[in-house]
Amino acid sequence: MWRGNAWPATLLIAGMVVYGLFVSLSMTTWNDYSRLASDAVFLESIGISLYVALSSTVLSVLVGAILADYFARRTGFTEQLLALPLFIPHLGAAYLSILYLSDLPVIGPHEANHLSIILTYLYKEVPFVFFYLLPVYRRLDHRYEELGLMLGLSRMRRFWHGKGVFLLFPVLEAAFIVFAFTLFAYEVPALLGVTYPKMIGVYAFDLYTQGDLSSQPAAFAISVVLTVSLLVVLLTFTRFVRPLTERISKGRAE
């Protein structure tokens, strides 16, 4: 009876998040959070993690959206090939990067610019964005663009009124999913990242597992800060952005 109903999965995930936050909060004090603000290692880890997450997200969404637009009115073997990376776990993709990028000094594993991590995420997330947006592109009514052409609208305005208003929220959804995953991921940065500065997922994991019990509250505090920040962004999307895009798509935006 649950077939096609998203509530069971939603409640399960929400319960896991709430329980994780409860456990993390019970293991920390206000001093743990105040110390993070002056922790130079934490701040550098946040900076490099935001760089990797934002770069991976923007490039994945751009490439995935372009491919979805191209294949929206086409079907073929190339489209099916794009599904292959989805069957490879991120850990396997990281090992492929080690195998094929190790001899390239500029983008090889453990380089300071983290290009190998970004390329690995592109390999995994571009297909995700592609298949996430493909149904949206195929539901678009291209007569809107034709009408804009008849009315003499510029190319950008034709794109916005014909596609942009309908793609805005799905694109933001896909971007949020990719950003949230890459920001706090562990496997790929642990295999391909440098020893310093570590990405925030690796840094938090090391704090928790290094054997010094006094460092564990900092790991819990990091997880709370990141989780709450992502929840705030998610609530902002659902509370303000989605209603706005729906009003725009129906021509009722002020």
Automatic annotation (TrEMBL):
Key words of the record: Cell inner membrane, Cell membrane, Membrane, Transmembrane, Transmembrane helix, Transport
Annotated ranges, domain ABC transmembrane type-1: 46-237
CDD domains recorded: TM_PBP2
Primary location group: membrane
Transmembrane segments: 7-28, 48-70, 82-102, 114-134, 165-186, 218-241
Cellular compartments annotated: Cell inner membrane
Record's bilayer topology term: Multi-pass membrane protein
Domain of life: Bacteria
Official protein name in the record: ABC transporter permease
Organism, scientific name: Exiguobacterium undae
